[in-house]
Design a protein that fits this description.
Layout (H helix, E strand, L loop, with lengths): L1 E4 L7 E2 L32 E3 L8 E3 L4 E4 L5 E5 L6 E4 L8 E4 L5 E5 L5 E4 L22 E5 L8 E5 L2 E2 L4 E2 L3 E5 L5 E5 L8 E7 L8 E6 L6 E5 L5 E3 L14 E3 L9 E7 L2 E5 L9 E3 L2 H4 L9
Antiparallel strand pairs: 1-2, 1-22, 3-4, 4-5, 5-6, 7-8, 8-9, 9-10, 11-12, 12-15, 13-14, 15-16, 17-18, 18-19, 19-20, 21-24, 22-23
Bound molecules: calcium ion (4 copies).
Length: 302
Amino acid sequence: MKFQKTRGAFFGLTVAAACPLVSTAAFIEKTSQLGLGGMNSSSDSMAWCDYNNDGYADLLGYRELYTNNGGTNFTLKTNTLWGDGVWGDYNNDGYHDCYSWMGGGHLYRNEAGAGLTLINNLAVMPTLPGDLDGIHGNASQGACWGDFNNDGYIDLYACNYEWDTGTCALPDSVLMNNAGASFTMTTLLSTTNNHARGVTACDFDMDGDLDIYVSCYRLRPNTLWRNDGAGAFTDVAAAYGVDTGTASCITTEATRSAPLGAIWTTTGSSTFSWVTSATPTPPKTARNSCETRGLRGTIISS
Ligand SMILES: [Ca+2]
Ligand SMILES: [Ca+2]
Ligand SMILES: [Ca+2]
Ligand SMILES: [Ca+2]
């Protein structure tokens, strides 16, 4: 089994299947016939989840939730959500809830499959950190659920990306779940101001706790957060050779990992391989402008 996710698209377990040398599978485009022809085209990610527990996976896109009608077609349930999101049952009631990382982050509670209720109470779900000038707010690009402290309640990691086309990087956040009642946010240190986009959780070192890998944009090193078991993280990307470059900010873009996400494929204790969409090519040197312009994101550890 493996955890996988692309650009904050979903949280879940998949079962690795044997892959034939020659595939005979064929796909037929049925978007409109299945009721998805009017889907909002602004989505950066999609996420399947059987939110009403009827046995059929439903579909979350940008601002939209489509209900699966017994595998025959889909019906638009709502188009007023905040944006793309990830599913997870934060209150352990048996129904998957939804967190959208957009607009400072928004938590939706699943009302026993009948619908999603936006939790506007900041004491329950804090707003993600924004630009220090207070003008732009937050610009998160992804999130993932995982029980980082093994207390039985899933927690959340949010990538906070940037503003002003790379001049202002924002620090990432860890939101620990207080027994399904609220979340406590820790904003990570400056090393995480890496223009993060995709995040995925997996126990790569097989020590019983979920670790986190974050893929970053604008030639920034990627981050591998090793969990201490209590939900506190240390960046070990360089030690494990998966930062895909030095922190000098002068490197080949192709040797950086995919800015849009990564996939775990665990292969055994303390070892792992990883796959991204970027393939090393002959060197092409580029300078990351963020080093000369400086990072203006909030640096807080609480
Ligand atoms: Ca369903
Ligand atoms: Ca729930
Ligand atoms: Ca937890
Ligand atoms: Ca671990």
